[in-house]
Amino acid sequence: MPQELQLQVLPEVAASMDLLTENIAKMVKTSVVDIKKITVLKRSIDARQKQVKINLKVKIFFSDEELIVEKIDFPDYKNVTNAETVIVVGAGPAGYFAALQLIELGVKPVVVDRGKDVRGRRRDLKSINRDHIVNPDSNYCFGEGGAGTYSDGKLYTRSKKRGDVHRILELLVAFGAPQDILVDAHPHIGTNKLPKIMQDMREKIIEYGGEVHFETRVDDFLITNNEIKGVKIQDGTIISARKVILATGHSARDIFELLHKKDIFIEAKPFALGVRAEHPQSLIDTIQYSCDYRGEFLPPAPYSIVKQVNGRGMYSFCMCPGGVIAPCATAPGEVVTNGWSPSKRDQPTANSGIVVELRLEDFKPFEKFGPLAGMEFQKTIEQKAWHLAGETQKVPAQRMVDFCNRKVSADIPKTSYVPGTTSVELGEVFPDFLTQIMRQGFLDFGKSMRGYYTNEAILHAPESRTSSPVRIPRENDSLEHVQIKGLYPCGEGAGYAGGIISAAIDGEKCAIKCVESLIHQ
């Protein structure tokens, strides 16, 4: 019978199946030739001691046993060409996983997205990086795959209670993601691999009778007696349906404005905001692995840090080992940063959002905007940063120690942020209370991570799209909007997810509830 075993080994052992087999053979007191196969079930890094180790959970198949290889395959999708239609607004993880779940349940999804497909998006990403031109409908946030496709592909989530994380990971593997995401403690696909996965998901939706329409922006919701009847797109075309899953992401400000204008209930939601800090990856490796050189068998080191400063949380967000900083504005006249890593995480720099939790009372100067107060707070900082950096897609930047000492940096070295930087005293970008917290917070970070607080670190401002500044409330049981029947607020944009996995889970949940409602109507 196969045997499961937990062990801790050196990185070079974990990287070599021959060495691992020898190690395990000694542990279970058998010969190497008696081991037919070893499957790694779980893998994580333990860097708490000076000698970094790899934690493994493995399954051992012995030579006298039948080896059964479990193939990961797709669910039993149905042809829904002639089935009832549900409109899915948004082709990000929430939207696509909702669409696939609808197909699995025998309902036809019609997915509409304001942006372009993954291939078409690349041209617009090139324009924002090279020419500083922001396409409001196609950028790092809008288009096929949503913000996640060109923003790293981290799959780690703490949302274990929200749904079946393993199901989502297995579906991603079926669509071409590496099997390692089922094993690693902090799984990651990589921005270079995600586009093909999203394209394959779209092709599967179409293969089974669903529809996917790009460059199709929703301009209005058709509502009668507080019940959804469909949507109107930008060219005036009306798409009718009894159910609409709204999965538009955390940056679809026009959707928030449309809902507010139509007196559809939404509410301001706290979020976090700050800067994106970039260090040399070798420096982070030295701090995290307690060594001068990490060697060939350890991956670029990540970090995660949280501090309480003046009663508020200040923490790392979307940390990207071996990654780059990207321009993520969604409209002209603003600058926004985010980070991503390729699958190999082989860039020479590490970056992370370093953000401070905001509270509803922080938005008081914008209270005239009602539930959009947080969004306006966010916009003001992004627009101020754009102005201070020279009114292009360059961002305000400052060396970390200089920022804490209120000193404009004499020079900013070239960073991974392709549009470029402008040396600015970042205290001019943020409200005083936020600046004070960040200054103290970086000093505190340096005490916990020796070497982190350095002028080698460059701060880019702002990191402002951590989560939605608006919540679109829904009923706990039905997941329908609290006011509009048939409207299902979903994913990050509605305030119910925070990343690819939780968004995908929420998309599936909304699809299931949507179909249950159709059956009982």
From TrEMBL:
It comes from the Bacteria. It holds the Pfam family FAD-depend_C. Keywords: Monooxygenase, Oxidoreductase. The keyword Lyase does not apply. Residues 270-466 form the FAD-dependent protein C-terminal domain. One of its GO terms (molecular function) is monooxygenase activity. This is FAD-dependent monooxygenase. Residues 85-117 form the FAD-binding domain. Gene3D superfamilies: 3.30.70.2700, FAD/NAD(P)-binding domain. It comes from Paenimyroides ceti. InterPro entries: FAD-bd, FAD-binding_protein, FAD-depend_C, FAD/NAD-bd_sf. The keyword Oxidoreductase applies.
